[in-house]
UniProtKB/TrEMBL annotation:
<dbReference type="Pfam" id="PF02626">
    <property type="entry name" value="CT_A_B"/>
</dbReference>
<dbReference type="GO" id="GO:0016787">
    <property type="term" value="F:hydrolase activity"/>
</dbReference>
<dbReference type="InterPro" id="IPR052708">
    <property type="entry name" value="PxpC"/>
</dbReference>
<dbReference type="InterPro" id="IPR003778">
    <property type="entry name" value="CT_A_B"/>
</dbReference>
<dbReference type="InterPro" id="IPR029000">
    <property type="entry name" value="Cyclophilin-like_dom_sf"/>
</dbReference>
<feature type="domain" description="Carboxyltransferase">
    <location>
        <begin position="269"/>
        <end position="556"/>
    </location>
</feature>
<dbReference type="GO" id="GO:0005524">
    <property type="term" value="F:ATP binding"/>
</dbReference>
<protein>
    <submittedName>
        <fullName>Allophanate hydrolase subunit 2-domain-containing protein</fullName>
    </submittedName>
</protein>
<keyword id="KW-0547">Nucleotide-binding</keyword>
<keyword id="KW-0378">Hydrolase</keyword>
<dbReference type="InterPro" id="IPR003833">
    <property type="entry name" value="CT_C_D"/>
</dbReference>
<keyword id="KW-0067">ATP-binding</keyword>
<dbReference type="Pfam" id="PF02682">
    <property type="entry name" value="CT_C_D"/>
</dbReference>
<feature type="domain" description="Carboxyltransferase">
    <location>
        <begin position="2"/>
        <end position="192"/>
    </location>
</feature>
Length: 557
């Protein structure tokens, strides 16, 4: 049975009986696309669909989905990748207890299985492999490990997978490999693409086996085209530029600054979320103040304290959280900048120091012409969770300025904050679209979400705002497990402890805890400006209900 569930104002979640039906619907929509669908993220038994509400409605999509043939078998690629693996996983004995098979039998069954890449998710280059022996279907750990080494080969449910980087995780570890699952110098960057065939080959010496596997891996990796095709995209920030080039020399950065732009949407098939700037209105305003194109990359500062010296003439714009700015020129004279959202002219030798903002969380610094920073997967954004993008900017970094010819492009002197920035202790109301898993919670749990004020904790990051409340959100069945499914920026995920996490731009592509609602798109910028100890109150703007098909016909494009 198919269910279509609301996620936010521009996203819906299609729940299907299982993986085969999910991949069948995905294949159908890829071969016969529907106008207005922007991106789809498959998971074990769901398909997350991002759409343009000006082109198509959620009801119209639900109608079309119900008409699609879900019996089709997803096509498989002719590409087969052999992964050398050493079966040294710390969970082998536990898997033996769970399955009733000995360790040698577990290894035999795993390496004799023919796996297929079903979809990518969780992290860049993390591929969910199906086709394993049903005798090896084992549950995830109840409590995830805080760190799983890169290259770990693991089992969970009906899937096998390989962790592309060191990350928290709850899968059962069966072995390890030294083959890179994710490499931005490769095209495509994710080694294992949907449809690829995968075999695990047992080895004793991973380093020797890796050399033998390189040719096959390179053939598979270069067989298709990808977004990371040019040499200039292979490095995020050049380390070979001489000191004579115009640049900002970073003097202090108590919290690393990050390069950000509007993100890298459209990379979900490689397990990469969009990421990008947290306060889009402030980002665009910063670029307007210096006359840049709207999407030009800029610096995102967290809680100020940042300083740099300019080696040339430049024009900067500062928006977002209002930091007091001090400029000391080469002669030692000091100027205080009290108004932000205005262009600021710099001379060689000027030292610019940002104080700490009293309201808001993040400040955006644009420079006329932009920074000389090469994109990775089409974006200069730093995704802190996935470790994709330029390295964080720290003390000693040199930020090279582009020699961009902007001509007579005008600057803006009429910018202002798009909303009132909150201070610690302020109560901020965020509009919420209920779904997709609101029905996992009791009536009292939903009332707790919307009637209680939630405090922003110090454990918050660009991945998500961790909230704390006196009363936890109550589930109907606290022992129920949700297969991982696609998530969105603004999703309010509720783990077993009932204390919600509000996902920001660097959230994982998929998650395994139920999402009770999602912040409306028009309040997302505000979520990126919530300082610690801000109080949040959620206001449901729609009742929760499944999205029913409509009677009008919708045709594929």
């Amino acid at each position: 049975m198919m269910r279509v569930l609301p996620v936010n104002l521009t996203t819906i979640l299609v729940e299907l009986p299982g993986l085969e039906e999910t991949l069948a619907l995905l294949t159908s929509l890829q071969s016969q696309p529907v106008d207005g669908i922007k991106e789809m993220i498959p998971a074990a038994r769901t398909l997350l669909v991002h759409f343009d509400p000006e082109s198509v409605s959620a009801k119209a999509l639900a109608t079309e989905f119900h008409k699609r043939d879900l019996s089709a078998i997803s096509p498989r690629s002719d590409c087969q990748i052999e992964i050398p693996v050493r079966y040294d996983g710390v969970d082998l004995d536990n898997i033996a207890k769970l399955t009733g098979h000995g360790v040698e039998e577990i290894i035999r069954r795993h390496k004799e299985s023919q796996f297929t890449v079903a979809f990518c998710g969780f992290a860049p280059g993390f591929s969910y492999l199906t086709g394993g022996d049903p005798a090896l279907f084992v549950p995830r750990h109840q409590t995830p490990r805080t760190r799983i080494p890169a290259g770990s080969v693991a089992l969970a449910g009906a899937f096998s997978g390989i962790y592309p980087q060191s990350t928290p995780g709850g899968w059962q570890l069966i072995g390890s490999t030294s083959v890179k699952m994710w490499d931005t110098n490769r095209s495509p960057s994710a080694l294992l693409q949907p449809g690829y065939q995968v075999k695990f080959v047992e080895v004793d010496d991973l380093e020797a086996a890796e050399a033998d596997a390189t040719l096959l891996i390179e053939e598979g990796a270069t067989a298709g085209s990808g977004p990371n095709d040019t040499e200039e995209e292979k490095l995020a920030l050049s380390e070979t530029v001489g000191n004579t080039n115009p640049h900002f020399k970073v003097l202090t950065a108590p919290m690393p600054a990050l390069f950000q732009d509007l993100g890298r949407p459209g990379q979900a098939n490689q397990g990469v979320s969009a990421s990008g700037v947290l306060d889009r209105s402030a980002f665009r305003a910063a670029n307007r103040t210096v006359g840049n194109p709207a999407g030009t990359g800029c610096l995102e500062l967290t809680l100020g304290g940042f300083s740099f010296e300019s080696t040339s003439q430049a024009v900067i714009g500062c928006t977002g959280a209002p930091c007091p700015i001090t400029i000391q020129d080469a002669k030692g004279q000091t100027t205080q900048i009290t108004e932000t959202h205005r262009p600021i002219a710099l001379e060689p030798g000027d030292v610019v120091t940002f104080g700490h903002p009293r309201t808001g969380m993040r400040t955006y610094v644009a420079v006329r012409g932009g920074f000389e920073i090469n994109p990775i997967l089409g974006s200069v954004s730093t995704d802190t969770l996935a470790a994709v993008g330029p390295s964080p900017v720290v003390a000693g970094s040199r930020l090279i300025l582009k020699n961009a010819q902007l001509g007579l492009t005008s600057v803006s002197i009429y910018e202002a904050p798009a909303f009132t920035l909150p201070a610690p202790g302020d109560v901020v109301i965020l509009d919420v679209v209920l779904g997709p898993r609101t029905d996992w919670f009791t009536k009292e749990g939903l009332e707790t979400l919307t009637q209680q004020c939630w405090k922003v904790t110090a454990e918050s990051s660009r991945a998500g705002v961790r909230l704390s409340g006196n009363v936890s959100i109550e589930r109907k069945d606290d022992k129920a497990e949700l297969p991982s499914e696609g998530t969105v920026t603004g999703a309010i995920q509720v783990p077993h402890n009932g204390q919600p996490v509000l996902f920001l731009a660097d959230h994982p592509l998929t998650g395994g805890y139920p999402v009770i609602g999602a912040v409306a798109d028009y309040h997302l910028d505000l979520t990126g400006q919530l300082p610690v100890n801000t109080m949040v109150q959620f206001r449901a703007i729609t009742p929760w209900s499944e999205i029913q098909p409509q009677h009008n016909q919708l045709h594929a494009s």
